[in-house]
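Handoff note, outgoing to incoming analyst
You'll be picking up this chain. Sequence as last confirmed:
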Amino acid sequence: MIHLTELPLLRGTVEAWRRAGERIVLVPTMGALHRGHLALVDHARTLGDRVIVSIFVNPTQFGPNEDFSRYPRDEKTDLANLQSHDVDAVWIPSVETMYPHGFQTTIDVGDLAKHLCGPFRPGHFSGVATVVTKLVNQVSPDIAIFGEKDFQQLQIIRRVMEDLDIPVAIEGFPTVREHDGLALSSRNRYLSETERAIAPKLYETLQEIAAGARSGEPIDELILSAKDKIKKYGFTDIQYISINNEFNLDKTDKIESHERVFAAAVIGNTRLIDNLFI
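Most recent structure output, in case you need it:
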């Protein structure tokens, strides 16, 4: 596995793969890798000849009161895990490489950022879109893979790549879960033992909403009931529970063929998100 920290070396490595006619797959991450990330890596191996994983904790997608400084970082373990999963190269740029002195350009992602997490994390998706665009331009992959747990992010990235005519296929991968249904996340390590026992109730509640919606129960009543349950379980801040079209992310009260139920809620000091296709 090649360990790359300088942009000219990254580009030289990718250029050599291109000359050999090899298909390149990128897995962008912020490190603190878990089984979900490694499932993306394993899937990437089935899609191309070369797999490159980026590790970069992107400061521009964190708000002023969010957890950038304490976001989990464990580069040594990450590199060992990637080595054991046959990754060809890992790209670990510095903040200075990604955002050199005088950097000013960002991407406005439009209406897709106005839904769900957008109002609660102003500027977040602009930061995501900008850094992913930079990573894709740096690596020039044929495919980039993202997990469906961050479904709004996935759809925004698809939109950006299409709108800006960037020639990369964006592949989604199903959410990887613990045995009790909790969606894997690097932030799960923030949870106390008590909070960890409660956290799977978020997914359980989404399953109940989806089942009720499929059977024709009124969506407003399902959502209200779900919010009450989540509060009783111990979640302190329910930012949203909502059924939205999975393409344009508009909120809907009809179940047709492309709807998901989404949720974001806080337990202790940890913000959890999840979604489920209905």
